[in-house]
Design a protein that fits this description.
Chain lengths: ~240, ~60
């Protein structure tokens, strides 16, 4: 089986169409299970009461905002370095979903901040660096939209995406490097999590649901981008003959 | 199984507010994407058939 053929947008288009339901349907099911567990199984927190239930949307949104940015930068970099059109199209398809999750993490964080900290917003290191991430996404989307030639837009976007990726470790480690109002990490790879098992599982299921949703939506957007760009290329070819 | 009340111990506005906002964001993304897909499909009908042609170009 020659997998390289799927590096061609036209060959990847039908494959993406077949893959979408395999991500969209499990995503919907996991959203239902995660929300059920988060609201009906997980107990109230002894300090924050029910206010902590915002984590089931806030944490997956924040993680995906960061992860999708890194993924977008990798695809943009590959597209730039190897002149691979599909990778560049993938980067631009990821950007809108990444921006949406970053925006969602900021808004849900504000909804959490008001009852727990007494304020909607503070210029805390974690929150400010996440806001910068949103601006980087908006910059990437705006830059690509402002350049008519798709290949030039991809190259310009790749530079911005690769430079901006430095912000992701800053967001992650901000709670350790600076004295912030935002709480530190409760889940670490090498250490036992400090939250109740049912809370942790609800959050992980919601994370999986958001992740599968992102893949499905990005694939749909990628198919639209392939249709739009290949048509433009075909029209350009016709006009120049 | 716990049956949470809508008031959520006094935090209902913040909890439901964040989830309603998340729902709106997801609906907005799906609606705009659906519109873009519809426009791309309509354009495809007008343009030459490019998706079904035999091509293997990975780069421009």
């Amino acid at each position: 089986m020659n997998l390289y053929k799927y590096a061609s947008p036209i060959n990847f288009y039908p494959l993406a169409g077949k893959l979408i339901p395999w991500f969209a349907i499990p995503s919907a099911l996991l959203f239902a299970v995660g929300l059920f567990m988060g609201f009906f199984i997980a107990p109230s927190d002894f300090q924050q009461g029910d206010a902590y239930r915002i984590i089931f949307i806030h944490v997956p949104a924040a993680w995906l905002g960061m992860f999708l940015y890194v993924l977008m930068a990798i695809y943009a970099g590959v597209g730039w370095a190897f002149n691979a059109r599909l990778a560049s199209m993938m980067a631009s398809s990821i950007s809108i979903t990444g921006a949406m999750f970053t925006f969602l993490s900021l808004v849900s964080g504000a909804f959490w901040g008001k009852p727990t900290w007494g304020t909607w917003w503070v210029w805390d290191a974690r929150m400010t660096s996440t806001l910068i991430l949103l601006f980087l996404y908006i910059g990437f989307i705006s830059l690509q939209s402002s350049i008519d030639d798709a290949r030039r837009a991809d190259r310009a976007g790749a530079v911005l995406a690769l430079v901006g990726v430095i912000n992701v470790p800053i967001i992650y480690f901000s709670v350790q490097w600076w004295n912030t109002l935002h709480q530190g990490a409760t889940i670490r790879i090498l250490q036992k999590p400090t939250i109740h098992g049912s809370m942790l599982w609800s959050m992980l299921i919601m994370l999986a649901a958001c992740w599968l949703y992102s893949v499905a939506v990005v694939l749909v957007r990628l198919r639209c981008t392939i249709l739009e760009r290949e048509q433009n290329a075909a029209r350009f070819a016709e006009a120049t003959v | 199984m716990n049956w949470p009340d809508l008031n959520m111990g006094g935090y209902g506005f913040y909890i439901w507010g964040s989830y309603i906002f998340a729902l709106l964001a997801i609906v907005w993304e799906l609606v705009t994407l659906s519109y873009r897909k519809k426009v791309a499909r309509e354009q495809e009908k007008l343009a030459p058939k490019v998706i079904s042609r035999k091509a293997n170009e990975t780069t421009s």
